[in-house]
Here is the input.
Amino acid sequence: MRRFALFLFVLSALAACETNDGGAVEIAWVIRGSDFRAYACDSAVLGNQPIRTVRLSIRPVQRPDVDYCADGTVRNCDFPCDSSRAGDTLRGVTPFTVPEGSCLIGVTLLDGQGNPIPASRVQVPDPIRKNIEKGSLTFLGVWQFVILLDAP
Here is the structure.
């Protein structure tokens, strides 16, 4: 808890140094197998598709065809998956450029070549709806990605 409080303090200090054009989102994640064990991003059970990147999509509810991450409205929506920290909660934070309003926020997991890892190998939660407020950090909670161990 103390490290998390320090992290938020540092984040707010950094945010004070940059332009605050909108809100920001923070995502945290853990990787589990369908056997409930913790796994690293490059676990051998993933074969030739280790998780290298967690990519956010942020879509306004009123315009779900728009993705603020894909169109460049929000930069830095890709977060590296740190394989040295199996079982740890990993995280990423966008800059304060997410437009205000209600958004659907989801993730795509990418392999080392930048290709999406199919849902038949690793399951991710469905997008969630969050209200973004200018100058505020929206914590998305801890997401669990599940490696399907019996998948081909």
Summary: Residues 2-147 form a domain with the Immunoglobulin-like fold (CATH 2.60.40.10). The chain has one helix and eight strands. The CA atoms of residues 24 and 94 lie 5 Å apart. The two ends are 39 Å apart (CA to CA).
